[in-house]
Design goal:
Blueprint lengths: L5 E6 L4 H9 L9 E5 L9 H6 L6 E3 L10 E3 L5 E4 L5 E4 L11 H12 L3 E5 L8 H9 L3 E5 L8 H9 L4 E3 L1 H9 L2 H7 L1
Parallel strand pairs: 1-2, 1-7, 2-4, 3-4, 7-8, 8-9
Antiparallel strand pairs: 5-6
Helix pairs in contact: 1-6, 3-4, 4-5
């Protein structure tokens, strides 16, 4: 498989620990941008960048409109949809919630499929609804790669189960194995930019 240009990750209930485990497996020099949506309450004081950043060496930041994709992890801010643009930047949107969620995993994944086509890797983690399944289908339809957290390792298996029912997966694995598998892309991504 060719190294992706971007890795998009989505989760809800129980996804913070798996996301942190994946990010912690990557070296600071990991060359592929990661962009993640976790469902967060509107009134939540967003300390996720600091919380995740304390446990990993890759840079972690909250996405802002116009943020340029670079090495590290970009997190969707509470109450905004986060979209990827073909010019390598992030856009934020206050459009209506999708499936009762803003930020929506489907919105992120569908924008990534549109902007990056076959060079997207989408990963669905633990969660208590089906957000992300439709977006993972868009990534698959665009020729991208889809991975899903093993539902047996998820504290809320509904989201990974929904993704597997709708799309299937190129890889089903626990978070630690997902992080290790991502390391295989680093040399190729560095060569191919």
């Amino acid at each position: 498989m060719t190294a992706p240009k971007v890795i998009v990750i989505g989760g809800s209930a129980g996804a913070l620990e798996p996301l942190t485990t994946i990010a912690a497996a990557l070296p600071a020099s990991f060359p592929i941008p990661l962009v993640a949506v976790l469902h967060i309450p509107d009134d939540f004081e967003n300390t996720l960048p600091e919380t995740i950043g304390r446990r990993c060496t890759i840079p972690v930041q909250e996405g802002m409109h116009g943020t340029r994709l670079s090495c590290g992890l970009i997190l969707a801010p509470p109450n905004y949809h986060l979209l990827l643009e073909a010019d390598g930047t992030v856009a934020l949107s206050l459009d209506a919630p999708v499936g009762y969620s803003r930020p929506s995993i489907d919105v992120l994944f569908e924008s990534a499929a549109l902007a990056y086509g076959a060079r997207v890797l989408g990963i669905v983690l633990s969660g208590a609804n089906d957000d992300g399944a439709r977006g993972l289908a868009a990534i698959r339809q665009a020729g991208g790669t889809v991975w899903v957290q093993d539902p047996q390792t998820a504290s809320a298996a509904y989201m990974p189960d929904a993704a597997l029912r709708l799309v299937g997966a190129d890889r089903v694995a626990p978070p630690r194995e997902i992080g290790t598998a991502l390391l295989a892309f680093a040399p190729e991504a560095a060569r191919n930019g």
